[in-house]
Every structure is written in C-alpha cells, then in structure tokens.
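Posting for a labmate who doesn't have an account.
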Amino acid sequence: MIIHSSDDPGNSIGSTNSNLNNTSSNRTTKFEDDILLEPYILRKEISEFGYFYNNGREEIQLTNFIVKLEKQVIAEVNNKPEIYFSGKVEFTEGETVEIRKLRGKDLASPLQLITYLTNLCGTKISFPGSPNKLVEAIKTFNRDTELLRAEEFGYNEDLTEYITSDLVITKDSFIEKETAIKYNDLGKRNKLGFSLGSDDEFLEIKNGIIEDFLPWDSTQRTISALSFTFLPIIFPHLENVNEKKTYLMLKGPSGCGKSLMCEVLQQFYGDFKSLIPWNSTSTSINVAGHSFKDSAFMVDDFKSQSFNGPNKVNEVMTLLQNYADQTSKQRSNISLTIRDEKYIKGFLTISAEDLVISEASTIARGIIIDMENKIPNLDGEAKLRKTANNFKIFTPQFIQFILRKEKSDIENLFNNNKIHFLDIQKTKNLNGNNIPRLVNNFALLKTSWDLLREFLFSDLNKEIGDEYDFLYQDDLEHLFIENYRRVQDLNPEVKFENTLWELIENGTLILTEIGSEDYQENKRVGYFEKHISDDSIEIKIAINMRKSFNGVNAVLKDEGGIGNSLETLTQKLVQAGKIRTVPSGRISFRKEKQRGVEWIADFPKHIFGIRGEANTVTLGEFLDENGLPF
C-alpha cells in the first residue's frame, strides 16, 4: 500500500490501483444514483464506485466499496455493553462479502476497521482516502440500521415470555418477531427454535409421539426421557420451591439406541444435524451448554476412552456438580474485573457407554437409566426420525400451556411429588445422605410427566394416557430404587466397608487373632480378640486404616478407587458409626495394644464362626472349625 497526503490532518491509506488514483481533482459530473449526505457521497457506478468526500473544492474517493450494515445488536459482555454489526461489503457488479460480526470498537477505530475489512475481503479492497473519513462515511450512510437488543434464548426474567430468534411465545399469543440471540454455540448446522404448524399438523405430531416414540422402548425409558426433555420448560416455574437441577444419563452398550433417542428428542428444540460429543473439553461442553438456556441439551459419546486419567474424570464430576447446583466460578481478567465463567444452562441429557464417574454425590445429582440392546428395526427408526423432523411444532404449544398454568399449581404438584417419593423412601426403609437429592430429582421428573400427560393426551385418548401412567408409576418407583442402590454402592464408606469384608472373607486380606502368629504381614490389615464370658462371646477388632485403604483401593483401581482420601474416609466412617478412634492411635486388647481404629459396626460374623446379629453372642452361637459349639 502507498501512503498519500490529503487535506485531512492525518495520513490516508491509498492503493496502487491506478483507476482509483486517477480520480479527477475537480469533478463536476453528478451521477443519477448518487446519494449525497454532505460532505459524503455514496456512488454506485462501474467507473466510480464507493464513498467520496467533498471538501468544498474537490471530491476525493475514500473507498472502492460500500458497507451496508443491516443490523446492530447490543449485548452485555462481562456486565459491559458491547455492540456488534452484521451486513455486507458491496463491490461493483453486485459482488458482496458478508459481515457477520463487526465489533463496535472496530468501527470506532479507523486502523482496526481497515484491518478487519482487509482480513475479510483480501486484496480486492482499497482505501485511497482518509481512514478517519472512511469511518464517518460508513456511519453516515448507515444511520437507519436496525437496532436490536440481544436476548438469551428461553424465558424472560419474569417468566411471561419465551423468546427465540424469530418467535416470542406468551400465554395468549405467538408473536413472529426477530430477536438477536446472545449465545449461539450450538455446533455445526444446528439451530435452536420452533415452528408454528396448523392444527392438523399439531395433532399429527401428538399422535406421532404416542404411536411412534412411546412404544419405541420400555415405558421406563421412553417416558422418562420424554418427560426429562420437557423439564427445562417447567423448571423455571419452580424457582421458589427448588433450586437444584438434575441430569439424565442413558447408559448402555453401543447399538442399544441411546444416541438415537437423544437425536430424536433434541428435535423438540429446533433443527439439529448432530449432537455435541463428550470428547470435547469440559470447557467447551460448558460453553455449548450455556447457549441452551431453558431447553434440552443432549451430549453424546460419554465413555471411559474419552477420559485419559483421573484428572479428566474429576473435571467431569466438577462440571456435573456445578451444573446441578447451578454454580459457576468467577474469574478475574487482566484488568482485574470479574467475569462469570460460562456454565451449562440447558437441561443435560447424556448418552453414555460407561458410568465413568465414581463419586456417590455426583451420581446422586442425576437420574441414570440402563439401556439394553434390542433387535434392529430400520423401518421403525426411519419412521421415528421422519416424525421427529416436525417435533419442533409441538414445543411452542406446550410452552404456552405451561405459561397459562398458575405458578402455585405447578409448585404444589412438585411438592406433592416430593411427598410421594419420601413415602417410598420410608416404606422401603431407604436411608443415606443422598436421599434428599434423589427425592428432588424424581419429583422433578414426575412433575414433568404429570404436566406432559395432561397436555399430550386429549379427551379422545385419555384412556391411553391413563394406561401409560399406570405402567409408568411402577417403572418410576423401580427406577428410584435402582438409582438409590447405585448411589449406595458407590458411596465411599459403603464401598470401602463392603469391599474390605469381602477381601477378608476370601482371604485376600486377613485379620490376625491376638496371641497367634500368621507370618503374613503383607496381607494383614488388623487384629481381633475373642473374649468368652459366662454366657457370651465378644469379638473386638482393630483395623489398620492405611493398610486397609491401600488394599481396597488396589482392588477398586479400575473402578476409580474408593473415591475419597484416607483422611476423609476415616472421618466419614467415624460419623457413620462404623469405627472408633482413640487419641493414642492404639487399640487396647487384654494382653497388648495394636495400632489402628476399633471397628464397632456390624461385620460378617461367620468369618469368626458366629451365628446371630450382635457382636456379643451366646456361647451356643460360637462354633469351632468343625462347626461344633465350644
């Protein structure tokens, strides 16, 4: 590029293009298509195309192009307003280059604007005039550019409108209105949004859900997945009675249909050609999920091979915890201002081959459904996919149905469903620290199903809805108990206790009786002593926690280990009433002391030849090695 001087106090950037540099200094010719906004001229002639500046003595060509800004969008970034422009750069003979996101700060800086346009258009673009006047010319001829305020997809703050890029849904109407959506990290060829169909099309979709989707698999799987898909539409209306979200995991072997189910259900929220895979980083999952506010967010391909090491697994568990608890970290940038880290705002459904996560509290934040392989049904799959292409017609009608509901009615329904699962918990004698989370998760799921059933099954097919509901209530109770057991089995202290006694029982680890010698130091994890009184026998056990911890962890290595540090595990066992610690760290027996903690909870008494439930038992319940009473 060649720098030319002009009447402008600053330098102007020119071009070697001879046609542009031969502009007459005393032009008097006026073209019919000129647009004159003093002192700037917009000219669209093949011989002279671009912006011109009239300084009162001559016309100076500023560019060989015209910028047409079609939209200006105001958004808030890190709590500061920022403006973005979209439009196009026009050259002669109708050639155009699309402007997707020109920042306001670039338009305010001549040199940044020139850099942006050069990167966008390459060598075809020229700036023979003043950069400062170029900026003013572009702004002068784009004064009427439509101004839009960027909004997030989903509900507005007071839950009276559900906003998409081209539709605003209220309880009374569907308003076709263009809105700039703030976040749009949806993956390639994916679009959030809905369609408004005719009454006949809507009825056809309802029947397609009932006839094609619900029978596709067991009612436990299809109804649970469908209900969870519509939970993001209901959840915001429960803000006064519930703050915790839950995730859904469809877990099963390759070919079981979990990915198909996710692909089909995602279509209720727009046009999706692909799902976001979990081989992406946790950060990218969070960024993508941030765009799915108040909508379903399906992530595919969750499996062990995607996580090469415990640190990656820990990242996933942190992500799921932050998602369910609706927490996000705040980080300071270089200027020390605070900015929020993006986190998942959609409702997360995971298609998984493996559970991967091993921490009970993380698992308890979700609902896990086991999937099984089934006989392939290619015709049925093709029909289901075809039906799913129009699922986006169903969703705006359901949103309007929810908006017409009294918020208190939805809250009462949720609270009653919590009572329902608490009754199951009491009846089945289910206990544990994670019960409140499980009850909350399943109350959310049932609330969604209750509302969806009311909407989906009209008076004409109400009997079918009642039949599905009758079947699903049993399925839901079984699923609740299955998830409880999964959490209990993976509770670190339960996991440790069960595995420890299993290893002692099969001889992998041993307890040595006080006063005897076993010469198996590498297998010994503690000591025990039998005390026989007049009418009973007492067993006292000292456990070396470090040796026991290492032994159990080694066996559970492929499952992610115990899931707690030695110190945390010891503390939890004390709180659970499983062990007793003493200040000296040495447990007293009648003849000696041994380092460790005292095991004070139940244990498999047959290991010591005891029949009965108590640690102190009658003489008749203590057997010798031949199975005979002492």
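Reply:
Got it, the structure tokens are right above this. The longest strand covers residues 66-77.
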